[in-house]
């Protein structure tokens, strides 16, 4: 990728809607381009802020009132803000209407934005907490946006 990442591809990257080849090319490019790295982080932050504003006014008082469903779904997690190109294996241990409980091998910073890729969807989420539990970390994330997994991507 000789030039900078196109603006429309930046949002698609954050949402996980690009083909593997295009996403890999962007990964390679942002390793050496601070401008494009900043653009991806800004897009992730903008999407999160937009979704938070849309939820404002809804009854958001007690998040734990939602029932949680136990699951053991595997996925991949990428930190988008601050941007990391590393993909971490993650296990979704429980899910509610707005949040997920995760098990992951590395600590995640509260307030960070992450992309979680499962077989069925790509999720944009904000890390609410992350605590060490034995040899792994337990994290809670608030789901900001959901999109379908594009063909050929997992």
Based on the model shown, name its key terms:
27% helix; alpha+beta; 6 strands; 154 residues; six-stranded antiparallel barrel; Thrombin, subunit H
Structural summary, described in words:
The protein has 154 residues and is of the alpha+beta class. The protein has one domain (1-154): Thrombin, subunit H (Beta Barrel). Helix content is 27%, strand content 41%. The protein is built from 3 helices and 6 strands. The protein has helices at 7-15, 20-30, 34-55; strands at residues 69-81, 83-95, 99-104, 113-117, 121-133, 136-148. It has a 6-stranded antiparallel beta barrel with strand order 1-2-3-6-5-4. Helix 1 crosses helix 3 (34-55). It is globular and about 45 Å long. 27% of the residues are buried. The model is unreliable at 59-63 (pLDDT under 50).
Please provide the count of β strands: 6
Strand percentage = 35-45%
Arithmetic mean of pLDDT: 85
The main sheet orders its strands as: 1-2-3-6-5-4
The CATH architecture classification is Beta Barrel
Helical content stands at 25-40%
CATH topology: Thrombin, subunit H
**At the fourth CATH level, what is the homologous superfamily?**
predicted glycosyltransferase like domains
User: How do the helices and strands follow one another from N- to C-terminus?
Assistant: HHHEEEEEE
Major sheet summary line: 6 strands, antiparallel, barrel
The helix count comes to 3
Number of domains: 1
Which class in CATH terms? Mainly Beta
Which stretches of 5+ consecutive residues score pLDDT under 50? 59-63
Provide the gyration radius in Å. Answer: 15 Å
> What overall form do the CA principal axes indicate?
globular
Give the N-terminus to C-terminus distance in angstroms.
23 Å
Structural class: alpha+beta
